[in-house]
Amino acid sequence: MSDIHLDDAVLAALQDVMEDEYPILLDTFVADSEERLRLLHQAQVEGDAQGVRLAAHSFKGSCSNMGAVLLANLCKELEDAGRRDALELAPALIEQIEREFAIVRILFKSERQRYRL
């Protein structure tokens, strides 16, 4: 697994497509990700393997779209664990996802600072 946190090529493509809306996209991703983490925790606490799988799948997609490579890979691992009903793996994976998201959040906030007027 790659140690890349963000794919610069994906960010450059998003910046080209989104233009002036790019900073809003960064803010939206961070806020949305916080909610997705809450849903992951809730499903894990409830012992809901299907809920874990669905929340991880959704989070994986948004991470992939935003170029958060390592975070997307961790979400895929959690999605697979949910699919296999292996919820004993969920707490450690969710902790890894939270740690990686903390890094990605800082990187996106730094990226966002470049667009302050």
Automatic annotation (TrEMBL):
User: Which InterPro entries does its entry note?
Assistant: HPT_dom_sf (IPR036641), Sig_transdc_His_kin_Hpt_dom (IPR008207)
Coiled-coil spans are none
Chain positions found as Phosphohistidine:
H57
Q: Note whether Hydrolase occurs among the keywords.
A: no
Q: Name one GO molecular function term.
A: protein kinase activity
Any one GO biological process: phosphorelay signal transduction system
- Pfam families per the record? Hpt
Q: What is this protein called?
A: HPt (Histidine-containing phosphotransfer) domain-containing protein
Species per Swiss-Prot/TrEMBL record: Ectopseudomonas composti
Sorted UniProt keywords: Kinase, Phosphoprotein, Transferase, Two-component regulatory system
